[in-house]
Amino acid sequence: MDQSASQIVDAAIVRAAGAYAIARTINAVVSVVEESELMVEPGGVGVSLAIGQVLDPVNDLVERFSWVMLACLTSLGIQKVLIEISPWLSIQVLLSLSLVFLLVGPWVGERFSGRWLGIGKTLLLVAVLVRFCVPVMAWLNEQAYASVLAHRYHQSMSDVEQDIDQLKANDPSAALESDQESAHPDAGWIEKARKALSQGAEQAVKVLDFRSRLNAVKSITGRIFDKLVELIVIFLLNTVLFPLAFLWGIIRLVRLVFRPDFGRNLEERWLERVRHRDAPSSR
Q1: Residue 13: which of 81, 72, 86 has the closest Cα?
Q2: Which residues are within 8 A (CB) of 27 and not within 5 positions of it... i.e. 6 or more apart?
Q3: Which residues of 179-196 are buried (b: 16+ CB within 10 A; e: fewer)?
Q4: pLDDT averaged over 10-residue windows placed end to end, the chain, 283 residues
Q5: Which among 57, 108, 129, 269 could disulfide-bond with 112, CB atoms 3.0 to 4.6 Å apart, if both were Cys?
Q6: Cα separation of 6 and 13, whole Å?
Q7: Which residue in 156, 79, 131, 160 sits closest to 254, CA to CA?
């Protein structure tokens, strides 16, 4: 059981680390694209086309997504540590103390017997919780992930990777590469005029290419924004909210089972069934 729970947490850590790596990749690509700027000077008038404002929202979200993934990795690391230390803490410490109180309780007199037995039962409950709670919670969380979140996770990660490739392909800085040939200083004015007209046409083409790439970047970053929000929801549910909910449910269930009236009710029902089954044979 402990090995299975450890493997489940390891798989979740791999998923979270992969998402964190994707976030850093997006951040790097966005940083490069964000620095793209086209300078055009037709007729001595300077025109600057920058795309920093287009990428600011997704850049901010990537930073926050990175913090969320670090929090999720921390949560998974805590679960991993709890799985490793729970056998020692529950069996060697809590269960041993529980048995001491339960065994000594009947011999300390009626005045203290109930208190010692109560402490022993409480420690027994805590020992059971510590020993089985985290592995069971990890298993339930994995079942919930496989049933509800796995398809969304794989689809979102695949879409983000494709969008990153498209963002690289539509980097506006590619429109800035110039293969212009400078006019020879001894060229005549006709040659210089021809070069100037050629350069003006090339600049106009660059502006159009830059703007088309800019529109593509807007569309791609919009999709990346939506997918990052979906990944944030998936990882918060899988690593924080679901584990806490399952842990709370398990604790409530164990407390219900260990209530004195719960045990008495089960015993009375079992004795009633035994009497009912043995009644015909006694007659």
Answers
A1: 72
A2: 59, 62, 63, 66
A3: eeeebeeeeeeeeeeebe
A4: 89 91 85 60 44 74 88 90 88 90 83 82 84 87 91 91 83 51 48 51 55 75 88 91 86 71 65 72 49
A5: 108
A6: 10
A7: 131
